[in-house]
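Consider this one:
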Amino acid sequence: MHTVVMTKGVPDFREGQVSFDEDGHLERGKTPTVMNPNDKHALRAAFQTKVRNGGHVSLMSMGPPGYKEVLQEGMRDVYADDLYLLSDREMGAADTWATAMTVATGLQNLDDQPDLVFAGFKTADGETGHTGPQTCWCLDWPMITHVVSLDIDEDAGTVRAKRLVDGDISEIETVEAPMPCFIVADPEFEPTYRKASHRLNHKDLRDETQERAEEYEDYLTVWDHEDLNLDPDYIGLDGSPTIVSGVDPIPKAPSEREATIIEADDSEALVPILDELTPYAVGD
């Protein structure tokens, strides 16, 4: 069983204002970046298949060299056996379509073709939710979206999943699809480990991946457009039909909250604070 998880770096808005160039493109190399939060749901879903069914989990991203640390974050915080970064200047400033074409080619370039590819619901910056489905379209695979739980039947070569209907938590349907298959994990996805052996395996694998993340570059493969035999005219900015008409930078919010500082040994000052907070603690 080989599963691959697609991920992307997104601006870490906690660090303040992100950087844009004069054409309105996000300058990712100059912007503090973290792993897209929704992709961690996808990675947890893939990790569940590893714990329950064994196999191999790869984490793949397309972006600047700094995305190595995004991949390391995924390996450390959730799980990955190995990492793949698709990166060079020709891939820069790609829209979702050019990104999907590049990532689909990266998936096809793997020595061991995946049984399942996981993607997050949407990214925290673009929020289009396009890249996963477009990559699936390039591969011509079946796809299940808004997945909240799944089970793998390796003998039958199928995946059975529960998904939200129209993204609505109040309505859930069960669907089945043959592998290879594309899975878009919903933020409501919660991994389940019913057996004690699964829980023990989960703990052991988490310890292993955290240790592996310390030397993550030993498990990292970097491919450029030549490695993937991609025509620069069809990837990156040149291959992107989307036109950015404008963007509004998001400034760091000012800190306007007032704070009362009380020393721990000042019991008299603590009395009115405790009197004020006690009703909330008891639910009044």
